[in-house]
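Journal club side-thread
Mid-discussion, someone asked how the predicted structure for our own chain would compare to the paper's figures. Pasting it here so we can look after the session.
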Amino acid sequence: MTHSELLQEAIKARTKAYIPYSGFGVGAALLDENGHVHHGCNIENAAYAPTNCAERTAMFRAVADGLKPGTFRAMAIVGDTDGPIAPCGVCRQVMLELCGPDMPVILGNLKGAIRETTVAELLPFYFSSSDL
């Protein structure tokens, strides 16, 4: 699957967002080692703290479906932003734990802007299990 195709999957995932408070939908598409795509969308809550980002929804869904952390090949994230959207710090930490530092991350927006990076580039000087 190309990065462009994975971004299109993230756009599909974004349409599933539950965003009654912010109206700001985000979609994520996580590609696993078997070529399967796991969609994630942000899901808001009136209490805000229980809100879950699209990136974490996709990763948690994949793990809950039985896939092992570290077996993911790439993630695309898209939002209705001026430039390519970037994941929050919490999502970056979870990406490091479940996907690994070298996994490609494709950041995009609905206008077609794209930035390709890796988990480690998104979270330099990261904290991992080797620090415990």
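Post-session note: The chain has a mean pLDDT of 96.
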